[in-house]
UniProtKB/TrEMBL annotation, chains A, B:
InterPro entries: Pyridox_Oxase-rel, Split_barrel_FMN-bd
Organism of derivation: Streptomyces wuyuanensis
Taxonomy of the source species: Bacteria, Bacillati, Actinomycetota, Actinomycetes, Kitasatosporales
Pfam family, one: Pyridox_ox_2
SUPFAM superfamilies assigned to the protein according to its UniProt record, in alphabetical order: FMN-binding split barrel
Transmembrane segments: none
Region (Disordered): 1-21
UniProt protein name: Nitroimidazol reductase NimA, pyridoxamine 5'-phosphate oxidase superfamily
Length: 223, 223
């Protein structure tokens, strides 16, 4: 890729430059997207009655926009809809890649890749964007699935609220590699290294009431 | 277990009884502990300058107390230390167990087990409790590891801040089972079922500078 084609990094702000271990932080757009696209569950934080709330929830991505959804009756969705100015959120996605076992307890760590997004989530009111967002949410769980399921009908659309969060104030943080023991500890007689954490999919389990003539789609056997 | 020996459930509060899908929520103490003990990374939420912040971090558990730690220079640790009344947090742990593919886009879901803890985190100042907490943090990553590594020395202890969060206002939420399609969708020609999400460990990778005469400990080969 020539430099002119490279996606520009996200801007650095006070909230997205860590106070510590800065070399692990990045604003690289492609790195951020790759971390976001590897799973479909994030942890969404918001403030209710002055106190923090962190809930796991599904999300989808369309370019530089994330979408989360929920019942129109759920608390964060109601809060974002009530407030004209939206709901301030922090959306975080983390992959744990390895357990880092140093000789010293102090240098034990985790290999991980995380993305933290700060911003204001706003309810999506445009029907076209809402449909696009819901497709993105389903396709984020399993790519290709939205076109192989029944789309939401009018009643379901009305019961579902979608929040939009622009990727603007966002950063990634990555730790890789082995333990970082101090020189004076290198001769200690403890095993040291990394235990990889692996994540994958088991064989799909068909629902009891699935018509046996319906084949397993290629996008699932390829997972 | 006889009823008299059963651990009592956590109390239900406004914050730990969901407004929706209440049948998925539980205050069962053993269920909460089992979810907490299955991983070592949580998402810790707090409020900074009025806005939510959610960061992944390691935690340990000792009975009904959780511990998180960090550099004395890190922002949440500094905030908890500065404020005499501690730092209001929400600590959330989530396991994704399966992708639930319904015939309708609307009924797509995730099988998961999560725990949400609300409370005030306070800096641990007692040296004995601090040591216990740090051992618990290491043992939460790999059971048995704290006694097979060099304990923190005085300088490391001074550089590490530990926060204590009592398990009091806490709940679990669990979704299991297959898709819940509406009766009128049962004949639609889409594959439906659950794709299990599996998580495990790869073979431990020794550090380059490990003395080859140091054997892999049993607590690691048993992972």
């Amino acid at each position: 890729m020539t430099p002119s084609q490279a996606a520009p990094p996200y801007r650095a702000t006070d909230r997205t430059v860590p106070t510590r271990v800065r070399e692990r932080a990045s604003h690289d757009r492609e790195l951020v997207h790759s971390i976001l696209d590897e799973t479909s569950v994030c942890h969404l934080g918001f403030v209710r009655d002055g106190a923090p709330v962190v809930l796991p929830t599904l999300y989808g991505r369309v370019g530089d926009v994330l979408y989360v959804h929920g019942s129109t009756g759920s608390r964060p969705l109601r809060m974002a809809g009530q407030a004209d100015r939206g709901l301030e959120v922090c959306l975080t996605v983390t992959h744990v890649d390895g357990l880092v076992l140093a000789r010293s307890a102090f240098h034990h760590s985790i290999n991980y890749r995380s993305v933290v997004v700060h911003g204001t989530a706003r309810q999506v009111t445009d029907p076209e964007e809402k449909r696009t967002a819901l497709d993105a949410l389903v396709d984020h769980v399993v790519p290709g699935r939205s076109s192989d399921s029944r789309p939401a009908n009018a009643k379901e659309l009305a019961a579902t609220a979608v929040l939009r969060l622009d990727l603007d104030e966002v950063s990634a943080k990555v730790r890789t590699g082995g333990p970082g023991d101090d020189p004076e500890d290198l001769a200690l007689p403890y095993w040291t290294g990394v235990v990889p954490v692996v994540r994958g999919y088991g064989a799909p389990v068909a629902a009891d009431d699935l018509d046996p003539s319906v084949p397993l789609p290629a996008y699932l056997s390829a997972l």
